[in-house]
Design goal:
Number of helices: 12
Order of helices and strands: EHHEHEHEEEHEHHEHHEHEHH
Number of domains: 1
Strand order of the largest sheet: 1-2-3-4-7-8-9-10
Radius of gyration: 18 Å
Largest sheet: 8 strands, parallel
Strand content: 5-15%
């Protein structure tokens, strides 16, 4: 689709110094080994799919595989590296900052460094950390720091300790990541964090996990269990419209039919999930997305670029 000038909010960086440290620690991404990555390759793929700007976040598993002191240092190194890429390539690259969540005081400081000093577009946080999901009170100082800055949070799914107890051989990215995102959304809504921190804009990857599909069930749950925060159906749907949703790995009619009934139309964003979604997958996703008859040309233009500019006007 010539001239789309897409803004991709779901694009990764995997610096060699980072992947070397991950492998040395005996860790790695959900697919086992990292795909090829370099700034030059990233730009080549962007040009191929008419992506003008890619907002990059750090690949899996973030920095939590390190001990707290090491994770703090690594997060700063990754953020400074990303800032160098931004300076070198202008508007081609943007960034969601990397935050170590081992220590909330360190996390608050790094939020300030990313948003105040480096002027990043936002930060990337995992949906859960060591079994605790976003919205848990232990993360409140970080949420408060983000709220004060009108921060944007890209919610990155990951694995939960309970995943290892599930007797299934399938890699986490196939379904567990979607569940991780979904649980974080429920926790943010029913734990009250979304209302306590109204100035934070959360971007949910992969069309929000399972959220659009089971949104009606979620909306009536307080009618069944009085222990839940007694939100009305209208209130639940209004809170779901507070989120921003990207279409990475979720471009098909099956997902769109659910997403368009839940998300605010101006809060649906374009994403590829490259390079974890390799070029062949990205090519198939683009073919599916560009030929989806339910999305009219004006709406596709908004998803490609216009909606992102509402969230990141500095990219205009």
């Amino acid at each position: 689709m010539p001239g789309a000038r897409r803004i991709d909010v779901h694009y990764y960086m995997i610096p060699k110094f980072y992947s070397d440290l991950v492998y040395a620690a005996g860790s790695g991404p959900a697919i086992g080994r990292y795909p090829d990555w370099s700034p030059e390759l990233a730009l080549e793929v962007m040009d191929r799919f008419d992506i003008e700007t890619a907002l990059m976040s750090l690949g899996q598993p973030g920095v939590q595989f390190c001990k707290p002191a090491e994770a703090k240092i690594l997060a700063r190194r990754c953020n400074d590296y990303s800032a160098e890429l931004n300076a070198k390539h202008g508007k081609r690259f943007g960034a969601f900052g990397t935050i170590s969540m081992w220590n909330v005081h360190d996390a608050v400081a790094e939020v300030g460094h990313c948003l105040d000093t480096l002027k990043f577009s936002g930060v990337s946080l995992f949906a859960s950390y060591e079994g605790k999901f976003l919205g848990d009170p232990q993360f409140d100082p970080v949420m408060d720091a983000l709220n004060q800055r009108d921060g944007v949070v890209f919610v990155h799914p990951g694995s939960h300790p309970a995943n290892k107890q599930i007797d299934l051989p399938w890699p986490y990215f196939m379904m567990e990541y979607l569940f991780d995102t979904t649980r974080a959304v429920v926790n943010l809504i029913f734990g009250g964090a979304l209302e306590r921190y109204p100035r934070i804009k959360f971007i949910l990857p992969h069309a929000g996990g399972l959220v659009p599909y089971f949104s009606w069930r979620l909306s009536v749950s307080p009618m069944i269990d009085k222990r839940l925060k007694q939100l009305s159906q209208d209130e639940v749907f209004a809170l779901l419209k507070r989120f921003w949703y990207d279409n990475a790995m979720s471009p098909g009619a099956q997902t769109w039919g659910c997403l368009e009934t839940v998300a605010a139309p101006e809060q649906i964003l374009f994403g590829t999930d490259w390079p974890f979604a390799n070029v062949a997958v990205t090519e198939q996703a683009m073919k599916t997305y560009e030929t989806l008859p339910a999305i009219l040309p004006a709406q596709r233009a908004a998803i490609d670029r216009g909606n992102a500019l509402l969230l990141f006007p500095g990219l205009a």
